[in-house]
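Progress report, Aim 2. The chain analyzed during this reporting quarter is listed below.
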Amino acid sequence: MSTTSTDTYDQVGIREDLANVIYNVDPSDTAFLSMAPKTTAKSTLHEWQTDTYAAVSDNKAIEGADATFAAAAATVRLTNRLQIGQKTAQISGTLEATDRAGRDKEMTYQILKRGVELKRDMEHALVGLNNAKVTGTTSAARELASMQAYIVTNTDFNATGGADPTDGTGDNARTDGTQRAFTEGLLETVIDSIFTNSGEMADTILLGSFNKRAMNAFVGRATTTDHNVAAGSIVSAADVYKSDFGDLKIIPSRYSRSRDALVYKKDKWAVAYLRNMKTKDIAPVGDAERKQILVEYTLEARNEASSGIVADLTTA
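Predicted structure tokens for the chain:
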């Protein structure tokens, strides 16, 4: 090569090659929150009612007999506390004035990012914690009860240390037991119980990645042939569990509690909002623009008997 050639090693002033895109591969999907019905709360203590039918009886009457009456069972009044979630962003005037790669307005980019982060935090609070509701004080935040604190009718837990919440009102968390492997028998026990105790059959299984893979190894999956798969494909996953009482969609979740398999009916759990997610301006400090994203919400357990939980599962 000629030593008199002008090349990039000698030049000054070549612009940097910075792609005008920002790549973020962190997970952002919120399976439970995205599927849950949305409703409205009117106070920091959200309340709703549930009811049940009388037990089936040997119902027969004598011809011409007088009618007999019994007191009707009262509805059950349940509650949950509203929890406030928040994220903030503060941008200096100088930063907003610069020419940045990958975004036009820095504050807009930061608010979009914080919004995704807040939704992930909400998912974690709803199904990722074993949490009882907390009233809160002027110095302590209110906390919502997670799904795990309401499910008591259809459960399978390890009796070695494990126990259901005391009453299914959200006032008490589950007691964790010794972890054990997830098996098809454990799942079937819960599904059978839901069928027996509820006229609303579950339609969803929400669980972490480790136990999603454990489901792929269930005997039913191993003996199934999928005629819709293209030739040459290797299939190891199950997307639907076909039980004796209906099909349940299997949803892997990054933010649900990994030691629990939640078996539930989507429309029997809702998220109630006192304040929908909203961005508000905060008074600037000096040369900095400030914003806050707020949401005030809770979980509504419309009737936990339609759902169940396989608890105390191994996660590795």
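The first helix runs from residue 31 to 35. The chain has six helices and twelve strands. These observations will guide the mutagenesis work planned for the next reporting period.
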